[in-house]
Design brief:
Strand content: 25-35%
Number of helices: 9
Number of strands: 11
CATH topology of the largest domain: Multidrug-efflux Transporter 1 Regulator Bmrr, Chain A
Low-confidence stretches: none
Strand order of the largest sheet: 2-3-9-11-10-6-7-4-8
Helix content: 25-40%
Number of domains: 2
Mean pLDDT: 96
Radius of gyration: 21 Å
Structural class: alpha+beta
CATH superfamily of the largest domain: Regulatory factor, effector binding domain
Order of helices and strands: HHHHHHHEEEEEHEEEEHEE
CATH architecture of the largest domain: Alpha-Beta Barrel
């Protein structure tokens, strides 16, 4: 086995053992490494220290239980591996900027630090060759968009980070759907779209969400985005359901494209990433991301 495979083994163990006491020495033994080298390799491959990662995954599990069960908060804290209510509350608030009590009383959409699939760092596929990864299947192709496409929607600028937080982009989607339902300007059955572009400062992302329209004549209550014609690299991928598709799968696919695939293929891109949604029902399992090739 490669060294990264041993680290993935410990990641899988953590995912299935968050209720238990998790110690560095035990994880290092699973990875067949000394505690010192295990911690160094884990941090390099995952981007978090071992115990910070364990904490973040426990918080993600706790948020799920807070939303979907009526269990007492103390019982949830203990169930996911925290020693007491105070420690759990402090860590939850540090991650998500609200207490477990506040989250349960008035739920917000949250962004979690998801379980990584380290194998993606070491797998380079060619175009039109499916790649099966943990929880998704992706395929990369090259396409031409012959004509511009017009979308109407809303946007926001936000700090770009992989750390847990309130999911402001998901809340933007909810705001858009509320506005979309009050008008008939959108093409019936047309794509919905999420667009990532550079913000006004380097650390920020400008994110637009919208749906397709025939023209820009009657969109005075919305912003306009024109998806320009040209050549694109398209990453299409599938996951178990819409939630998995738009969280885990989307995050992993973007990281793979920007960190592995584009650098290795030396393709110059414009500063534009387009998410195309074909169905937004809970059972939907397919979407595409489009990356415009520089000309």
């Amino acid at each position: 086995m490669e060294s990264w495979e041993y680290i993935q083994r410990t990641i899988n163990y953590i995912e299935n053992s968050y209720e238990e006491k998790i110690e560095i020495n035990n994880l290092a033994e699973i990875a067949c490494l000394s505690p010192f080298y295990f911690q160094r390799l884990f941090s390099r491959l995952v981007g978090k220290s071992v115990m910070e990662y364990v904490k973040l995954r426990r918080l993600a599990k706790a948020a799920e239980l807070l939303e979907n069960t009526n269990c007492k908060i103390l019982d949830i804290a203990v169930k996911v591996g925290f020693e007491n209510h105070e420690t759990f509350t402090r860590n939850f608030k540090e991650a998500y900027k609200l207490t477990p009590e506040a989250y349960r009383k008035q739920p917000r959409l949250l962004k979690h630090f998801n379980k990584p699939d380290i194998s993606l760092k070491y797998r380079l596929i060619g175009e039109n060759i499916p790649l099966v990864a943990d929880g998704m299947v992706l395929e990369i192709s090259r396409r031409q968009l012959s004509n511009d496409r017009i979308f109407a929607g809303i946007s926001m600028e936000t700090f770009l980070s992989n750390n847990p937080s309130i999911n402001y982009l998901a809340e933007l989607w909810n705001d858009f759907h509320s506005k979309k339902n009050s008008t008939d300007i959108f093409i019936k059955g047309g794509n919905e779209i999420g667009v990532g572009r550079p913000g006004t400062v380097p650390e920020n992302l400008n994110y637009f969400v919208g749906a397709e329209v025939n023209n820009s004549d009657n969109i005075q209550n919305f912003e306009q985005f024109i998806m320009p014609s040209g050549y694109y690299i398209v990453c299409s991928f599938e996951a178990e359901n819409f939630l998995a598709l738009t969280t885990n799968a989307l995050g992993k696919s973007l990281q793979y494209m920007y960190s592995i695939w584009f650098p290795n293929n030396k393709i110059a891109l414009e500063a534009l990433m387009v998410e195309l949604y074909f169905d937004i029902t809970p059972d939907s399992s397919y979407m595409e991301t489009w990356f415009k090739i520089s000309t």
